[in-house]
């Protein structure tokens, strides 16, 4: 198109270059300190159309502002004379996807953030790396997944030219569409309007904080019924860059084939992003295809993380796949290498597997477990903690006008480990564990073996969209409702300890206490069923379904409500108790110990007593 006229005009204190052609006029403004840009701003308008859409491109197509303007609109020129208006143009955010021609400049998936921010996000879980894994488990549950696999495997990385560990988290949930993936890539998003009790995700940063704590690079492969998407969040890719790039490739189903979805991205951009992913990851097109085949025409999400966080010269995580270095059988698990116990006021016991064993943590992660979770290929025997207690008492109360229900009871496992405390759940997800309250804060022996379980969803929600839960979901904010709740929990725990102090007993001759009720979970519907009192739980098979003995009913039957003394079958929970009991003569000379049940003398403070007293434990 030939230009008819090119002229420069002086307007107030700056110059505007005007280029006119047959169909449109171009207005070129020089760089401005007001705009804080190191490049020119170009605008255009059509002169042979009554009402057309125009676009203003700021910088290198970092954003596109669309509007409507008539050729006769005399407000066009003043808009450019008033540079204060231009300074308000937003130049950040992910650009609106649009179809471009092959020779047009690619609009990459940029957000306005320094790449170092990815490392900053990971520090949300700097105190405990399992909190990062929990974020990804939460996303799977919110996607209504019924199965989740967590494992670490070795994979060859061509960039580093060696085998490296690859952490994978794979679920069979409903997957994410292109729009969902774009939201996932954003740093925070609007909270859901509906406060669904079963939904955990709320802050919009869980995936980013979790993935970047676990490793430097993460690839997401997700599939819905009619689409598939790849997203790459990488510190390696963004090294020495001024802006953060997140390559995303989306496909649309056409019959049995997935093809690039040109409705949300140009084909050239998809090719560029796919090439970038292959260059900076261990994944080539064959491996990506192999992982996509795991969906088997179903939905789900796969997350792969590599360049894992390091602990000295090794990795922060270590993993066991059933055989240790000496080729002896061990339980498949993922551990925190340091084996450090988390700091809790009043706690002295060093036997807290939940703090360093992923399997132990996932067993009690959810208030009512539904999803099958596998760690290193082995099923986690999840258990509802409130149904694994002895001498159970249910306490109801009102905290700032909101009702709460606390289940208190004795746990043989925690007695053996000299542990106690409250387990606080929010939206059915564990937030705090072994929280000592009341007298147990100041006396290590008080409350030994006593566990409390409570869901505080309503208490820490003001009903106006604000919740007093930390963004990393590992604690609560210091607020009035939580302070009142803490005091109430302390009162109830002290009352329970005072009422049951003399009645607590140890096992005799290695035999566990016999629970009044035992529960088993169906491997199909994931509902919990109460076993008959006469039924021997040792006869349960490794996989149990509702139609089998002793329930022998359909999975459609509603889940039973629990009351009284309840526990989960020791066999299906996977716990072994090698308890050695000393004779009565040995007990008299036995020194206090916190290592096991050989501790038969307890220095404890009873509520209302004048001081400490020594009490011999009765043997059943």
TrEMBL record:
Q: Which PROSITE patterns match?
A: ZF_CW (PS51050)
Q: Taking every annotated instance into account, which residue ranges of this chain make up the domain CW-type?
A: 513-563
InterPro entries with a match to the protein in the record: HATPase_C_sf, MORC_ATPase, Morc_S5, Znf_CW
Q: Does the keyword Cytoplasm apply?
A: no
Q: Which GO terms describe its molecular function?
A: ATP hydrolysis activity; endonuclease activity; zinc ion binding
Keyword terms, alphabetized: Chromatin regulator, Coiled coil, DNA damage, DNA repair, Endonuclease, Hydrolase, Metal-binding, Nuclease, Nucleus, RNA-mediated gene silencing, Zinc, Zinc-finger
Could you state one GO cellular component term attached to this entry? nucleus
Pfam families in UniProt: HATPase_c_3, Morc6_S5, zf-CW
User: SUPFAM superfamilies from the xrefs?
Assistant: ATPase domain of HSP90 chaperone/DNA topoisomerase II/histidine kinase (SSF55874)
| Family to which the UniProt record says this protein belongs | Belongs to the MORC ATPase protein family.
User: Could you identify this protein by its name?
Assistant: CW-type domain-containing protein
| Native source species | Cannabis sativa
Q: Which gene produces this protein?
A: LOC115711423
